[in-house]
Design brief:
This protein is mainly alpha-helical and 132 residues long. It is 42% helix and 8% strand. The radius of gyration is 16 Å and the shape is globular.
């Protein structure tokens, strides 16, 4: 599981920063499944893979298909991990708690794999990447 916590608005600049960091972690091509939010569809993000064809392939989910997006399951896991009495009340604390949570999850691959067990997201585990 690779992630990047940030406090600014999510835009094409943040997405490209994430893509740069992501491809730096692997010695093989990454197939990244992403939804169609506006930052993902921006000209900047669409142009970025052209300069990194040997490192990454962006695969877009069909329009409005949250059931196919494993991120939704991971986000639900994060939201349910914080006890009610410890809900964060500011952005800086949210970033700290998010990093802490995902640091734990990175050491718990069995839980991360569990997010891909449902029939709608099992496609992401396939050795042969799919096209939507």
């Amino acid at each position: 599981m690779h992630l990047m916590a940030f406090t600014e608005s999510f835009d094409a600049k943040v997405m490209c920063r994430f893509l740069n960091r992501l491809v730096g972690h692997f010695d093989r091509k990454v197939h990244l499944i992403i939804d169609r939010r506006s930052a993902h569809r921006s000209k900047t993000v669409q142009a970025w893979p052209a300069d990194h064809e040997d490192q990454i392939k962006l695969r877009f989910l069909p329009s409005y298909s949250p059931e196919l997006n494993p991120d939704k399951l991971v986000n639900a896991d994060l939201k349910h991990s914080l006890p009610e009495q410890h809900r964060v009340r500011d952005q800086a604390r949210l970033a700290v708690e998010t990093r802490r949570f995902f640091g734990r999850r990175q050491r718990q691959p069995h839980i991360v794999r569990g997010h891909f067990g449902g029939p709608h997201v099992r496609y992401a585990l396939d050795e042969n990447p799919i096209s939507f």
